[in-house]
Amino acid sequence: MSYELQDKVVLITGGSHGIGAKVIEFLLEENVKYIANLDIAKDVGISQEAKYSQKYGNKLKFYQCDVTNEEQLLGAYDSVLKEQGYIDVVINSAGIMNDSKEKYRKEIEINFTALTTSTLKALEIMRKDEGGRGGVVLNISSIAALIQDELLPVYYGTKSAVLQFSNCIGMPRYYARTGVRIVTMCFGATDTALLHKDMLGNFDKEIHDNMMEAVKQHPLQTVESAASSLVEVLKRGESGSTWLSIANKPVKDITPHVKKAYGILSELVFETIP
């Protein structure tokens, strides 16, 4: 399949920094109609909007939004609908990587709860069986959903939850009803602020003190590589599919591997049922 991004209305969370910011740039180059950037970083978001308005016109609008505040999140959706009339693409990109006692609840709220709320709102708006136009929701998971490690167990848990939620709600038989593709991206270590020492945290002091050494074991990919992979998946990804972007390599459809893994786990369940 090849999904045409030209003239589409896009909503993205966490679009003022890192991968999200580069995705916005690439989508503007694809000649989308409009991008709503929902982010908490006010100064950066406003500056970003002003920068791109000079080159692309009024195609990018910043909405200051804490995605964990449901009223703000759903209010931003309603504002976009009021202005544009519809939404075609939603990219749930907001996320943090901090398992400290002070931040782990926020991590769960941003990485999974807010993503779920946003996905369900997008589905409500887009689904064809309830009068919508169809569309695509792309949710950001991580290689953390594909491996097991004691480094960041809460973070790994949130990203595993994103993978399972997105795969299940995107299954072909459900997509046949809704006309809304739900696709999952698993990024490897990417050169963003998330991996800077002051952004990382852990409830375990020994792990916390050695986190940067552990992070260095993973080859970093550029933000450009990650963002271009995401745009490609928006165009190509089937509903319920999972894609891997890692180490500046071409993006890879890993859906067969994910299905095989869950198939093995499922055998343990169904073999016990008479």
UniProtKB/TrEMBL annotation:
- What's this protein's name? Alcohol dehydrogenase
Which family is this protein grouped under?
Belongs to the short-chain dehydrogenases/reductases (SDR) family.
Gene Ontology molecular function terms on file: oxidoreductase activity, acting on the CH-OH group of donors, NAD or NADP as acceptor
For this protein, the record's PANTHER family field holds:
15-HYDROXYPROSTAGLANDIN DEHYDROGENASE [NAD(+)] (PTHR44229), ALCOHOL DEHYDROGENASE-RELATED (PTHR44229:SF8)
Q: Which UniProt keywords apply?
A: Oxidoreductase
Q: Which Gene3D superfamilies match?
A: NAD(P)-binding Rossmann-like Domain (3.40.50.720)
Reading the lineage from the top rank, the first entry is Eukaryota
> Which GO cellular component terms, listed alphabetically, does the Swiss-Prot or TrEMBL entry include?
cytoplasm
